[in-house]
Write a structure and sequence with these properties.
By secondary structure, this protein is of the alpha+beta class. It contains 4 helices and 5 strands; from the N terminus they run αβαββαββα.
Length: about 180
């Protein structure tokens, strides 16, 4: 059973009941996933952008788009229109396949992982996860990388608020940190 079928058959009815929704179309769902890698060193060395793009292609199975600077920042020697990163956007079946890999394989490989912080939700039910190493993905060969780089995964939903978004992610199997209780 694919992750998309699992969502449609098992999770949707459960969320509908938990959230007290009457219409099946009001159930929150994931609309897209964006993976972004910012490469500040691309200002000095253009080859770094190509290597990062190749690694992101291995991770995602899709050719990344080069992102350009929207404005000039003199402190970082960045001019408007310079290439400073790469990104990939998933929708449809590939989105669910990547989400399954993220939840079941990549996040458990993080050292001392205690769950995703609830503060990662942005107020509209979208989740932003920053991964500090690209070697968490099984496709990356540690011997072939030039430098460890972080990447950002943004999971966009159509949830109305953080409560609905968190319920959706918990139903999909995402582990969240619990609030720490301080003792005096």
């Amino acid at each position: 059973m694919s992750f998309k079928d699992y969502y449609n058959d098992k999770i949707k009815p459960r969320l509908m009941e938990e959230l007290g929704l009457k219409n099946i179309f009001a159930v929150p769902k994931i609309t897209k996933i964006v993976i972004n890698v910012g490469v500040g060193e691309a200002v000095i060395n253009k080859n770094i952008l190509e290597k990062t793009g190749e690694q992101l292609t291995l991770i995602t199975g899709q050719k990344p788009v080069v992102t350009l600077a929207r404005r000039s920042i003199s402190v970082f020697k960045i001019r408007k229109g310079m290439p400073i990163g790469v990104k990939v956007t998933f929708r449809g079946n590939r989105m669910y396949d990547f989400l399954e890999k993220l939840i079941k394989i990549v996040l458990p490989r993080i050292r001392d992982f205690h769950g995703v912080s609830p503060k990662s939700l942005d107020g509209h039910g979208n989740l932003n996860i920053g991964l500090s190493e690209q070697i968490l993905f099984p496709e990356i060969d540690y011997n072939k990388i030039d430098r460890i780089r972080g990447l950002e995964v943004t999971i966009v939903t159509n949830a109305k608020d953080n409560h609905q978004g968190k319920k959706l992610f918990e139903a999909l199997g995402m582990l969240f940190q619990h609030a720490k209780v301080r003792e005096i």
